[in-house]
Amino acid sequence: MANAVVAGNDDFAGVRPYRAGDPLKSIAWRLAARNDELSVKLFESSAGEETVLDFEVLAARLPVEQCIARLTRWVIMADAAGLRYSLNLPGNHIATAAGPGQRTRCLEALALYPG
Questions:
Q1: 101 in a domain, yes or no?
Q2: Within-domain flag for 1
Q3: Which of 26, 66, 78, 87 would give a disulfide with 62, using CB separation of 3.0 to 4.6 Å?
Q4: Domain contains 3
Q5: Quick one: DSSP state of residue 27?
Q6: In which domain, by residue range, is 30 found?
Q7: 84, 104, 105: which is closest to 94 by C-alpha?
């Protein structure tokens, strides 16, 4: 599997669900105010890392519909930020890329997920 986002202080790379022990300063408080879930802001170091959007990480905590909705939002956010990202769904891996083609591939895969 490709590298995931590493902690860094360079560029915003998205969010992931909060895990016990995460520093309070990294919580996405504005996002927490809009829903019941705590999320942590991720920052990508300029070392060329990629963002990995992984269904299985979310599926441990959320129903399928919420996983798909959250991944869809993350795809849109990653695309808007110009990030290179991949998408891992059960039975379907979309390789790392960036741009409109990547966004389309990922959103189509999420829309067609049989869940």
A1: yes
A2: no
A3: 66
A4: no
A5: B
A6: 11-112
A7: 105
Contact 26, 40 (CB under 8 A): yes
Matching residue, tokens 């990547």 = 102
Q: Considering the domain boundaries, does residue 41 fall inside one?
A: yes
Distances in Å between the alpha carbon of 112 and those of 2, 17, 73, 80, 115? 24, 24, 16, 22, 9
Looking up tokens 């909705």, which residue turns up?
Answer: 69
End-to-end CA distance of the chain: 23
Three-class secondary structure of residue 20 per DSSP: coil
The whole-angstrom separation of Cα 95 and Cα 86 is 5
The token pair that represents 105 in the structure block: 């591939």
- pTM beyond 0.85: the answer is no
Q: Are 32 and 95 in contact (CB under 8 A)?
A: no
Tell me which residue of 59, 19, 72 sits closest to 42, measured CA to CA.
19
